[in-house]
Amino acid sequence: MSPCPHTGAATCPHRDTSTTSTPPATTPVSTSPTRKQYKETTVTVNCVTFPLPAFMSEQQLLKPNEWSYCDYFWADRRDAQGNSTLTGFEVLLHKQLKGKQMQKEMADFIRERIKIEEEYAKSLSRLSQNSLAAQEEGTLGEAWAQLKKSLADEAEVHLKFSSKLQSKVEKPFLTFRENFKKDIKRLDHHMSDLRKQLVGRYAAVEKARKALADRQKELELKTQQLDIKLNSSKAEEDIKKARRKSTQAGDELMRCVDLYNQFQSKWFEEMVTTSLELERLEVERVEMIRQHLCQYTTLRHETDMFNQSTMEPVDKLLQYVDPARDRELWVRENKTGEIRPVNLEI
Length: 346
Known about the structure:
Layout: H1 35-41, E1 42-45, E2 48-51, E3 77-78, E4 85-86, H2 88-128, H3 138-229, H4 233-319, H5 323-334
Helix pairs in contact: 2-3, 2-4, 3-4
């Protein structure tokens, strides 16, 4: 196996040496400090250096057999409108921000459900106190009174359901979202700062590269002047100075390239760590929503069961509604006399 492209060690602490997965690997290797190799074997895009296809050695995925964030978001890409460039990390970040927004909208949905339940409970309670048909008598009157009472019981069930939705579903949604937002903001600032520093390191490399080219051009010019002046001692001294400046410029370029490579390795490691952190947060978010939506369905089933129990006394009384019995009861309570009239005799 080739040495780690980021540390130079025989093995990479971030590389999994097990069997690679089907998707192609895309992790970067660092650039060589020499200008010739830089030009021929690598390409730097938005201050991140990648190997050219013809010179790219086999790169194993960091997490084989998984579609992990840390293996597939190294390059930048244009946004949907094609107006600006998004880093791979920003693409991941936008997914998380969308997830945060979806969670807020789910909480809003539950809030609306709570309002509906509260309003429905109030309506049921008002209806249960309505005096319509309150004068119905007998067994049917008892059943009617129980039906109205069942509305009050059902109203209480729906109030409890709305209260539990608020405490067990809506509130956890909002609490998790706030913590999620803080984590995302922290990671965003961290990676944005690292990327800016990487841009600065690469700018220093380009500045040092230009300075070296200027010193080399100056040395070439001084050498040509020496040929014209035929061994002029002053010209020879100028050449020595120009050569010394060129050497210093070359050393400075090497130093800047080394610093850039070191920082790109740091950025690489932080990208891996942060990508896995985003991956973990996304799993937590989805799992949290799943669990609380299960809580929602459980509460809903319980509400149906309670509502059913409020109707059981009504069902029972309706089974015993007996028009004949009602007539008997009414007659017993309201009769005015049992003697029937007869014909008058002369």
